[in-house]
UniProtKB/TrEMBL annotation:
Pfam families: Sigma54_AID (PF00309), Sigma54_CBD (PF04963), Sigma54_DBD (PF04552). The keyword Transcription applies. This is RNA polymerase sigma-54 factor. GO terms for cellular component: DNA-directed RNA polymerase complex. GO terms for biological process: DNA-templated transcription initiation.
Length: 415
């Protein structure tokens, strides 16, 4: 049998995004921090792109946590009726500590560094450097913050998170600490090796396993995810004489220009500036349209949110729905009621006229105002919502209650 080799030439078509379109899509998804990092990378590669420090106009926006610390507590409407966010919770606790000067500065930076899990997302020496204080002072402040309930917040690792909970529960001992130093062996279930390393009987190791498994490795995950972290927002909305006005937060972005003189790179620098300006214009258009439709929520809280989809906004502005989705993905907006994620102002319609987000806010408000000795059952909550004009089924209430992290009635009862 003879084998022959043939060479064939074929044609095919495929779509491929050019570099400019790829960069445009990347910028649409970027928040203020991501956009700043992108610009810094571009400026490092192209010296013709000049970045200046963002304008610091205190009339634009001042970090809400600074006002909270000086005023004795965070704006109670920050979470807009759905239970406090992790940032709102720790900010309120920090405000009650009566910290001053450098200690307050360190506490603010540590709060900003919190991850949604409740762990610190930044090394302590970095925080100390940012605050301009000795490492020992930062460590002292951190130790105070680690006493904030629930235990485990502000941990720098999983083992520290679990240890903080063990100390709070009064079950901390040498054997448990030894197990926490070897979590890899615990995960593998290697009781025999841990027993040899710690020089204790295997049943002692097993007992510590059972204790540790009762702890929560992510104590921050139980807080409301609705409120954005207290950070410089991308948009600002304020009520003026002419009504609600939406603007870009210029203080969160560096100003851009092209360096004088001739040479390569000037065209590329102008292209980057055009991309950013296009991104900002699109962000402002979408933000203004969303907030125009949700003025009632700005006035009265999230219980007044109207049903709104990204398709509604895309059709009104002549954009693709995917463009709206990318823009709102990481965008935060500072309102008189707190810093919120723009994407949380979208909500599907439930029943005749209410949005799902509004129903969740109303449900959380009912639970917050209930008698703790006689908490409302899901059926009673459904009836209360229906009496208020929001017809919902008991199973819908149960689903929303789980979404908000609200325990069942028998677990909420306090004697």
């Amino acid at each position: 049998m003879e084998t022959r080799q043939n060479i064939r030439v074929t044609q095919s078509q495929r779509m491929q995004l050019n570099l400019g379109l790829q960069a445009s899509i990347k910028l649409l998804k970027a928040d203020a921090g991501g956009l700043t990092r992108f610009l810094e990378e571009q400026a490092a590669e192209n010296p013709r792109l000049v970045l200046d420090a963002p304008p610091q106009d205190p009339a634009d926006w001042s970090p809400r946590w600074e006002r909270a610390f000086s005023g004795g507590g965070l704006d109670p409407d920050l979470a807009a009726g759905v239970g406090p966010s992790l940032m709102a919770h720790v900010t309120e606790k920090i405000a009650a500590m009566d910290l001053r000067g450098p200690e307050l500065r360190v506490a603010g930076l540590l709060a900003e560094a919190l991850e949604p899990t409740g762990w610190l997302g930044c090394a302590l020496d970095v925080v100390a450097g940012q605050a301009g204080v000795p490492y020992g002072l930062a460590e002292t402040v951190l130790a105070r913050l680690q006493r904030i309930e629930p235990a485990g917040l502000f941990a720098r690792s999983l083992s520290e998170c679990l240890l903080l909970q063990a100390v709070e529960a009064g079950v901390d001992d040498t054997v448990l600490r030894g197990v926490l130093l070897h979590l890899d062996l615990m995960a593998a279930g290697d009781v025999a090796r841990l027993s040899r390393l710690l020089a204790v009987p295997a049943d002692e190791v097993q007992a510590r396993f059972r204790v540790i498994r009762r702890f929560d490795p992510k104590p921050g995950a139980h807080f409301s995810a609705l409120s954005a972290q207290v950070r410089e927002p991308d948009l600002i909305v304020r009520k003026r004489v002419e009504g609600w006005v939406v603007s870009l937060n210029r203080s969160s972005l560096p100003s851009m220009s092209v360096s004088a003189g001739r040479g390569d790179g000037r065209g590329a620098a102008r292209a980057v500036i055009r991309l950013v300006e296009s991104r900002n214009a699109t962000l402002l258009r979408i933000g203004a349209d969303v907030l125009r439709r949700q003025e009632a929520a700005l006035e009265s809280g999230l219980s007044a949110l109207r049903p709104l989809t990204m398709g509604d906004v895309a059709d009104a502005l002549g954009l693709h729905e995917s463009t709206v989705s990318r823009v709102v993905a990481g965008t935060s907006i500072d309102t008189p009621r707190g810093t919120l994620w723009l994407r949380h102002l979208f909500s599907v319609k439930v029943g005749a006229s209410h949005s799902a987000a509004a129903l969740r806010a109303m449900l959380a408000d009912l639970v917050r105002r209930e008698d703790a000795r006689k908490p409302l059952s899901d059926a009673a909550l459904a009836q209360a919502l229906s009496d208020g004009g929001a017809l919902v089924a008991r199973r819908t209430v149960a689903k929303y209650r789980d979404t908000l992290g609200i325990p069942a009635a028998h677990r909420r009862r306090k004697t």
